[in-house]
Amino acid sequence: KAKPVLVERYRDGAAKRYMLDGDSKRKVQWEKHDSSMNTAEDENVKSSVPRVIRDFVLPAGFPESVSDDYLQYMLLQFPTNVTGWICYTLVTSSLLKAVGVGSFTGTSAAASAAAIRWVSKDGIGAFGRILIGGRFGTLFDDDPKKWRMYADFIGSAGSIFDLTTPLYPGYFLPLASLGNLAKAVGRGFRDPSNRVIQNHFSKSGNLGEIAAKEEVWEVGAQLFGLSIGVLILLVFRSRTHQAYNRHTQLLL
């Protein structure tokens, strides 16, 4: 019995199946697929959703500019992302409690309050990604490398706001939100540009491998940067401790 090895689907609904039979002989089979159901669904969305919202959340030229299963995939992916962020909120509260936030009061109220402030800054920052993806999505195909560089600069600049939060703890939420907003804007520039760049590098149909190897580079840079950051914190803590001891000795 022939087994399918690869299936190519085309925008007109046709499918091309590559199969191997018991004698390891390759067979190619064309299939016509009735995509009227998906097309009707896309047309219903196009007619029922206001143009402003449609242009913001859907690619230009929808539904002709995307594959038939695009909308279905996005609708299925949305609730899984929502679930992930619910878990993130609860996990943040648990982690803050585990490292000692609220330990002096004996309750989890302080950890919950800190978690609310923490995820609030993430929520405000998320508006930056919505803005970039909704209004500037057509920019990344023209010069993706330029926007990729802009993304790194904007993201690094956003860290300045985070670094000033210990100096002005009363303004933690606005400062952290501004920092997260800038970093979210940077990520909004980075991710789409990255996909275009990866597609450019993939000359042998090996887009998955290109993305995987780039992940290796990014994780390597992440581990290296984390190591340097921890080293800086250790040196800073050591010097602060020495200064505190000298100050205590002078008082005595």
UniProtKB/TrEMBL annotation:
Swiss-Prot/TrEMBL keywords: Membrane, Transmembrane, Transmembrane helix
InterPro entries: RUS_fam, UVB_sens_RUS_dom
Signal peptide bounds: none
Transmembrane segments: 216-236
Domain of life: Eukaryota
Stretches assigned to the Protein root UVB sensitive/RUS domain: 46-241
PANTHER family, A to Z: PROTEIN ROOT UVB SENSITIVE 5, RUS1 FAMILY PROTEIN C16ORF58
Family: Belongs to the RUS1 family.
Protein name: Protein root UVB sensitive/RUS domain-containing protein
Organism of this sequence: Lolium multiflorum
